[in-house]
TrEMBL record:
Protein's recorded name: Helix-turn-helix transcriptional regulator
Domain of life: Bacteria
Pfam families membership: HTH_18 (PF12833)
Keyword Repeat: no
Organism listed in the record: Clostridium boliviensis
Keyword Nucleotide-binding: no
Keywords: DNA-binding, Transcription, Transcription regulation
Residue ranges annotated for the HTH araC/xylS-type domain, each copy included: 299-397
Length: 400
């Protein structure tokens, strides 16, 4: 790869590896394929883990193709090219299995030299990720590294007898004790991550929980099922957030926003995106307010000022909602933060305005309205008081 392309690839690949625990390899040396096979193959029934197959798909430059390979264990590899360099993502899984499923595969391929313990140990070492999410990831990686790359077509290549391998029992799911135990473990890790304010760990465990629900079918769902799933997740997160010490009024505000988005969503992807956004917002709030050591009352007021600055906030109405008097709210807020609620709100609004001034071409009236101030002249006056210069001069200085 060119130096500039390689730098972009390294950054993007590193992010994907860190977040999804996926291997991403560029085969640019002769001995890499053999090392890759030795590292990732557990049994010779995995047909694509051979030098012949991997050489076939990595040595013939096909710029418009993404190969999606599936072996007898329902393990996958994705292969595509960036500037004639073959990139391999995986191995990974999109399915979970029980001992009954393993016996079906072992019988189908007459496997006698591999124990089920080793088989499940191998599968559990691989990341679980939805096929649709994987392809979005690949598309983003390619677009980031090579924006001018031609549109790529996905070609599925199966190294198994699909009809014989997938029995009808997969559709009914009578034996799922192992899956429930695994899901319980993921759920506990998910709750613990929320309580710590660790959004990355929480979302990772959420993905694993969602994979469990899909059993051995290709991941897919209906809009109504996802709404139900989002409600269950929302309840779990709410309880974990309250247990972490986040004020109830903040919990209700974030939760209500997700409820509204989920109810109006027109696609499964919208619901999944909103669910992850909710988790990040909860974790950010937990992480932030744990560090600040403020009282519940002040934490609640700070959340309103930091996240709803664009609304017409009346301090008296906020005090009523928090079930305290206006004077008490002002007194406690000043004691803990060193400033009044109105002053903090103004600073929060002007901070957001400064970001818009330096990053957009919005007019003064548009920026003023977007930070909760209807009068542009008053906005200019407040901004100049806090920053020592007019919004126009600020924009000119930071965009020159």
């Amino acid at each position: 790869m060119k130096n500039s392309t390689y730098e972009k690839y390294t950054i993007a690949a590193s992010l994907i590896q860190d977040f999804y625990h996926l291997q991403i390899s560029v085969f640019d040396q002769e001995d890499q394929i053999e090392k890759f096979i030795d590292k990732n193959r557990i049994h010779n029934v995995q047909a694509f883990f051979t030098s012949e197959i991997l050489n076939l798909y990595t040595q013939q430059y096909v710029p418009d193709r993404i190969y999606y390979l599936t072996d007898a264990f329902m393990v996958h590899l994705v292969i595509f090219f960036i500037e004639e360099n073959p990139v391999v993502i995986g191995p990974f899984c999109t399915l979970l299995m029980t001992p009954k499923d393993a016996r079906t595969i072992f019988d189908q391929y007459k496997i006698t030299n591999l124990s089920q313990t080793d088989f499940f140990s191998y599968l559990s070492s691989l990341p679980a990720i939805k096929e649709s999410e994987l392809f979005r990831m690949v598309s983003s990686l390619i677009h980031t590294v090579c924006p001018q790359s031609p549109e790529k077509q996905i070609q599925h290549i199966n190294f198994f007898n699909h009809t014989a391998l997938i029995p009808k029992e997969y559709e009914t799911r009578e034996h799922y004790t192992e899956l429930l135990e695994k899901r319980y473990t993921y759920e506990q890790h998910f709750i613990q991550a929320i309580e710590r304010g660790n959004s990355r760990s929480a979302i990772f465990n959420l993905h694993n929980m969602q994979m469990d629900v899909a059993y051995l079918k290709r991941i897919g769902t209906t809009l109504e099922n996802e709404r139900i799933g989002a409600a269950i997740t929302r309840t779990t997160v709410r309880l974990a957030a309250l247990r972490s010490g986040l004020p109830a009024i903040v919990v209700d505000r974030i939760s209500s926003q997700n409820t509204a988005v989920t109810h109006s969503a027109k696609s499964v992807e919208e619901i999944l995106t909103a669910k992850e956004k909710m988790i990040r917002e909860f974790c950010n709030a937990i992480h932030h307010y744990k560090d600040q050591k403020y009282s519940f009352l002040v934490q609640s007021a700070l959340y309103f000022f930091d996240h709803e600055y664009y609304k017409d906030i009346r301090i008296k109405e906020l005090a009523d909602e928090l079930n305290v008097s206006l004077n008490y709210l002002i007194s406690v807020f000043r004691k803990e933060t060193g400033t009044t609620p109105n002053s903090y709100l103004q600073k929060s609004r002007m901070k957001q305005a400064s970001i818009l001034l330096s990053s957009t071409d919005m007019s003064m009236q548009e920026i003023s309205s977007s930070v909760g101030i209807s009068d542009a002249n008053y906005f200019i006056k407040v901004f100049k008081k806090l920053y020592g210069e007019t919004p126009t001069n600020y924009r000119r200085k930071y965009r020159s």
